[in-house]
Each structure stands twice: as C-alpha cells, then as structure tokens.
Design goal:
The protein is an alpha/beta fold and 567 residues long. It is built from 24 helices and 7 strands. It starts with 5 loop residues before the first helix and ends in a 6-residue tail after the last helix.
C-alpha cells in the first residue's frame, strides 16, 4: 500500500502568499458550503447539523489525506436519494453502520489500486444516473417548495408522487411565493451581480461581490423577507429546533447484527457512487487547474482518504461524503493552490457554526428547497437528452434505461442494468470487429494447383467467447490436406478462443487434416503457451508468418501425395 497524501507534496516550497490565497479561497468555499450542507442533510431525512458535521470533519480529512490538490469533500446531492431510503428503511443508527462499511470498502478499493477502474464506467451510465438523481432531488423538494403539510415522504418515485398529489390541498401560497422568488434570484443572480459590479467604484467591493454565491445572498434575504412580511412558513427552527452551536460528540450506535447483512448492498452503492463522484470531480479539478504529470490526482490515494472520512464522520453525527464539484469549482476559481484551502474551508464552517447557529433557525425551508432545486438543475446534463439523436442506438438505450430506472425503480438496479447493457454492447461491437478472410490462391503462388488441398485463413481482431463462431465457420469448410491459420492480426485471445482452436484442431485430426498456425505473438502467444494449445500441435506446424505457413501446407500436401516421403 502506498499512502502519500498530496498535502505533503504541496507543503514543499509552500509560501506565505500561498497561504493567503488558500485562506481566502477556503473562507469563500466555507460560506458556499454552509447552505448546501444543511440542505443536503434535510433532504436526506436528517437534521441540518448532520450536513454541517460532515462538511467539517469529512471536508478536513479528505483535503488533508486525499490524492488531489484542490478538491473539496463533503455531503453531496448524489447521496440524497440513497441516504433517504436507508434512513426510512433501516433508521439513522444503521445509516451510521452503512456509511462506515462504505468507508471500509472505499479504503480497500484504494489500497488494492482499483481507483483507475472507475474510469471504465461508460459515460452513458454516469449521465443516466446523474440526471435521474437530479430529478429525484427536485421531486423530493416539491413538498417544502409548495409548503405542503406532509409528515412522511416516501422514498420511492410512485409513492412520492402519490403523497404529493394527496397533499396538494394543503398548499401554502406564501411558501410557494417565497420559494419562487428565491429560485428566481438564484437563476438571475449572475445578471444582478454583473449590474452591481458595473455600478460599483470600489475594486475591493467588486472582488468581494464577484465571489459571493447566490445561495448565500438568498439565505440572508429570505429570513429578512419572512420577518418583514410576516410570512407563515416553516423554518429550520420550527421543524428541527435550529442547529447546535457546539462541536459534535462521538456516538456509538446500537444496531442489530441481523441487519448487518442487509446493509451490504446499500453500503456498496454508497461506496461505488462515492468513488465515481469523487474521481469525476478530481478529473474536473485537474482540467480546470491545468494539472499535468505528477500534479494530477492520485485516484487510489483519493479513495483511501474518502474511505477514512466515511469511516470517521458517521460516528460524529455525519452522513456519507465524497468530492463535490460545485465547491471544488468555487475553490479553484477563488484562487486556491493546495489542500490547505479545503482544510481552511472546514475550519471556517466551525467558526460559522459556533457564531451564527442562532441565526440559522430563521432560515425558511422553502428557500432551502429552492436552493436544492437549483443544484439539481445544475448537476444534470440535460443537453444530452436533446443530443441523443447524434449517438448510436445502444448508447441511447443505455442512457435512457439508467435514467428511467434511477427515477422509477432504484439507483442500484439502474447502475447494474446500465453496466450490463454497456458490457453486452461492448462484446457485440468487439465481436463484430473480429473477422476471418480466406487467403486468395492467385495472390499466393504457394497454393498453385493445391487450392482444394491447402486452404488458408487470416483472422482479425479478438478471438474470445463472443467470436468463437469464426472457428465454427472454418470447421464447415475444411480442406483435404492442410488448414493454415494466420493469427498475426489477432490482438487478444481468451480461454474460449483457445478452446475453440483446440476443438478445430481435434476435428481436423479426425479428418486427417493438418493444422498449421502462423503469426502467433504477444498476448495470444502467451495464452496459447499457458493453456496447452501448443502441445496439441507439432512444433513444425507453427510458422512465423503466412508465407512460411503456406509453404508448410504445400509440403504436407505433397508428402501426402507421395506416401514414401516424410513430413
């Protein structure tokens, strides 16, 4: 195991100017993370402090121990649907166990250097479940966006729709108006910000406003609007009693060992989703920061850091954590230069929580619902639906299947079906690229006069379980004396391919036809040696190239015509 956080590299040559940049960026990200952390926790069926504790503890550990320079860790919108389902079905105590189990899985994945395998998940699967999660997040916020009186929100899509329809008569127009106004301000904040920057004469004010996120502005203005207009809407205080103004304490959950087996699947889902999210975020960070060579992220180190964070955080009242794109992008744009910025962001959240906890109880839930709907819209890649016509049918089917299954059935099922569809598509495409071509006699003088006795074939592509029918096709058209197989252009061969070759050789032996193999090299040669294929054929029936293979076939045919000669 190679455990080497990027922080150690960043501290080499670290200057005071670097610290000032990280301090400024970390403070900015801390302000951005505050409303998102609370909103993600409440949308997951937890108290708002669960999101704050996660952003603080996991955010610090991921930055301190991670394999990236600029990534910010914490609670993420992608986990909302899974966490809500676990809490509803198994309870908060078992969520702690599931999160810790996912952390162990993530650490083991990193230790076994499986981080690079995440890159092989097809884009269609990632886009499908990302868009599906975005739809579920938005749908889960309709209750607070409309101010509906709904005590128990189901986790499943059909139950969610049914509950929302039944609760429509309890619609709160004041909550709807506040949520709509908050969402409108979030959408048009960039235009408003541009106008403020243009009329401002102070460069320092311009720089501060430019870095100010719309979610923070809405979070400040909404409680003021509630107070001044006397709006009757639910707030964090009315539903949760506010947030604590003290650091979390260690808690050991009481759980039933019988449910431990039931948590393996949810924990695996959390681990896989956390790995995908964090490593995708790390790749985005590399692209934005221009990191190359050794400065690029270390996926295995990142997974180990994510694992440690998810093992520690739940026992201090937190929830699952991963790399977060929105906060990472803010961190980079704010001028961060090292993981110190992420550690500062966690400490900034501690300071905000200790000083501003009493104010948080006045934040209306309708505004937080608007923020989450805005996040859901931004996390989805909706243009992919418009551009589906540009892609092949397998891509379209995979993307839409994963999307619909994520929304209607379950994220785990969606990813499993998506990966299965992608594998089947890949196998089909590779098998379609594998082909066999007969050697034309008039191009090879060696076959002159022996066209029916010696037949040659060139094989291309991969000789694997999806393409063994090529051998079956050859077996139906065997010559009378010698079969020459040119495998020079076979780039890969598996055990099914070698078995097919063995069966072909055995059939030829029964019909007294020699098999001459030529051009074996690299991986096909290695597996032929290890599988015992070479033992089934005499050494003289292996040739370096097609020309010598055809000469060997001609020699066999001529020796058969003259029984007194030897081969």
């Amino acid at each position: 195991m190679h455990f080497k956080p990027k922080l150690l590299e960043s501290l080499q040559g670290y200057t005071r100017q670097h610290f000032v940049s990280d301090l400024s960026a970390g403070a900015t990200v801390g302000v951005v993370a505050l409303p998102l952390a609370m909103a993600f926790a409440m949308a997951s069926g937890l108290k708002p402090e669960a999101g704050l504790f996660t952003a603080i503890i996991a955010g610090f550990l991921i930055s301190a121990l991670g394999g990236t320079h600029l990534q910010i860790g914490g609670p993420a919108g992608a986990f909302i649907v899974i966490v809500y389902g676990i809490v509803e079905r198994y309870g908060v105590a078992n969520l702690i166990i599931a999160t810790a189990l996912s952390g162990v899985m993530l650490f083991v994945m990193g230790m076994l250097k499986l981080g690079t395998l995440v890159r092989f998940i097809p884009v269609a699967v990632i886009i499908g479940f990302t868009n599906g999660i975005a739809v579920l997040i938005a749908l889960s916020q309709v209750k607070d966006f409309l101010g509906l009186r709904l005590t128990n929100m189901p986790a499943q899509f059909s139950g969610m729709l049914q509950a929302l329809v039944q609760a429509l008569p309890t619609l709160n127009w004041q909550a709807l108006g506040l949520a709509a106004a908050s969402l409108a301000l979030l959408v048009f904040w960039r235009q408003v910000l541009g106008y403020i920057v243009r009329i401002s004469r102070s460069q320092r004010t311009t720089k501060f406003i430019s870095a100010l996120p719309g979610s923070v502005v809405v979070l400040v203005l909404a409680p003021m609007a509630v107070h001044l207009l006397g709006l009757n809407v639910d707030t964090i205080g009315s539903r949760f009693g506010g947030i604590p103004s003290e650091l979390p304490q260690f808690q050991w959950p009481s759980f039933n060992h019988d449910t431990l087996a039931l948590l393996i699947l949810p924990a695996t889902t959390l681990a896989l989703l956390g790995a995908i999210e964090s490593l995708l975020c790390a790749r985005v960070a590399d692209g934005m920061s221009g990191s190359t060579g050794p400065d690029k992220h270390d996926p295995n180190q990142e997974l180990m850091a994510q694992g440690i964070a998810n093992v520690v955080t739940p026992f201090f009242g937190g929830m699952p954590a991963t790399g977060t794109i929105a906060r990472t992008v803010t961190n980079i744009k704010s001028g961060a230069v090292s993981p110190v910025a992420g550690m500062v962001h966690a400490l900034a959240l501690v300071l905000i929580m200790l000083l501003a906890a009493p104010l948080a109880q006045h934040v209306p839930l309708a505004t937080l619902a608007a923020i989450l709907m805005f996040v859901a819209w931004n996390m989805g890649e909706w243009r992919q639906f418009v551009q589906l016509k540009q892609y092949r049918m397998p891509y379209r089917i995979t993307l839409m299947a994963v999307f619909l299954l994520t929304v209607v059935v379950d994220l785990t099922v969606a990813v499993q079906v998506g990966l299965l569809a992608a594998c089947v598509t890949f196998i089909y495409r590779i098998s379609s690229l594998s082909r066999v071509e007969p050697v034309v006699a008039h191009d090879h003088p060696e076959l002159s006069g022996l066209e029916t006795q010696v037949v040659g074939y060139r094989l291309y592509g991969a000789l694997f379980f999806g393409a063994v029918t090529l051998m079956e096709d050859i077996s139906t058209q065997l010559p009378s004396r010698a079969l020459v197989l040119d495998l020079k252009n076979v780039i890969y061969m598996d055990s099914s391919g070698t078995d097919a070759l063995k069966e072909l050789a055995q059939q030829c032996e029964r019909q007294q036809v020699h098999v001459v193999v030529c051009g074996l090299q690299h991986q096909p040669l290695d597996i032929a040696q290890r599988s015992g294929l070479l033992e089934h054929l005499p050494a003289e029936d292996f040739s370096a190239d097609l020309h010598h293979g055809l000469l060997r076939g001609r020699e066999i045919a001529q020796s058969s015509a003259n029984p007194g000669s030897t081969t």
